[in-house]
Amino acid sequence: MEKYKIKVKVTKILEKGECPFGLKVGDEFVFEHLPPPNFCHWAFHSLFPFITALRFGGNVPWEDKEGICQVCCPDPENPVVFEISRVEE
Known about the structure:
four-stranded antiparallel beta sheet, 1 helix, alpha+beta
């Protein structure tokens, strides 16, 4: 079974516009096995099912494009919106 690298990019920060973990719009991370050090564990917990699906070649049925999806963290005061995409080399 092929495993893909996954790129996660911060696309928006809603409400107050500040992430308590210091994430900024435009920040990007590549996930191969584990999240980067100091990555918000609440955000990662929300992203993980989608990262896993895309990493193993799956897709999210409500997205228009294959290999990509939008997910936000659960912070009700400052939801950070992430774009998760499969890196096809």
